[in-house]
Amino acid sequence: MRRKENRGVQIKTPEQIAKMRAAGQVVARALDDVRAAVRPGVSTLELDAVAEKTIRDAGAVPSFKGYHGFTGSICASVNEEVVHGIPSAERVLAEGDIISIDCGAILDGWHGDSAITVAVGEGRSEDLRMMRTCEESMWRGIAELRPGRRLGDIGHAIDDHISRNGGYGNVREYGGHGIGTEMHMEPHVLNYGKPGKGMKLVEGMCLAIEPMTTMNDPDVRQLDDGWTVVTRDGGRAAHFEHTVAVTADGPIVLTARESDRAKIADMGFVQPTW
Fold first, then answer.
1. What's the pLDDT tens digit per position in 121-155?
2. What gap in Å lies between CA 222 and CA 2, rounded to an integer?
3. What is the DSSP string of 88-100?
4. Are 48 and 78 spatial neighbours (Cβ–Cβ below 8 Å)?
5. What is the pTM of this model?
6. H runs (alpha helix) in the chain
7. Cα dihedral sign for 274, 39, 67, 230?
8. Among candidates 205, 160, 162, which has minimal Cα distance to 9?
């Protein structure tokens, strides 16, 4: 049974957070497998099949597949596509592309949700710099997930890092969200904000933190497919995301991958069960 809801936000017990970590581990493995499969000549539909197999082999269900009619197990967003790219046999990766891979899984009724951006081949230096800025802004936002902090503290930390490190665009139309027994729950988590403003964080909240950066103008539009979001100016974009629990001892990154271990230790976060 869930503990009492806080202003419409689902609050989890430590036992429920452990179940979410199990779902998060499935997502982490799926993203690792997809990352390993990224190469010139592979289609985004082939990458989708890799993720779905990993998820189902773990006894979990892809969160995205069938969600409001979405056809993929991942969102595969290439170059100027920011988020919600639909996997396709026709979209074949080439050397120098970048691809954002968003993945979710449901295990025993609990959700995990995470995203990475990967360079195809060596990657262009300007893309890699933007990707690093986006990813680091996510970690800066995660650092604010402590009881007593506020949603505005998260958004401010993300936006401040992006603006101070390359002046990249910070997409404002989309953001993070609460997560638990559903993939998208209250509260909405903006990637910008004012310190000390917004809903107060309490122990047991679980939030998906997901900044999206663009090379230039942050304005975006949705394509006619009803899903894919692209930059208006055609510039490239990056997207990173982790599902995180707020605890008395600090943030627990529920979708952490083995490659995140050193970063989590450096940031002083609670180490999840690996």
1. 999 999 999 999 999 999 999 999 999 999 999 99
2. 36
3. -SS-B--TT-EEE
4. no
5. 0.96
6. 14-37, 44-57, 125-142, 151-164, 261-267
7. positive
8. 205
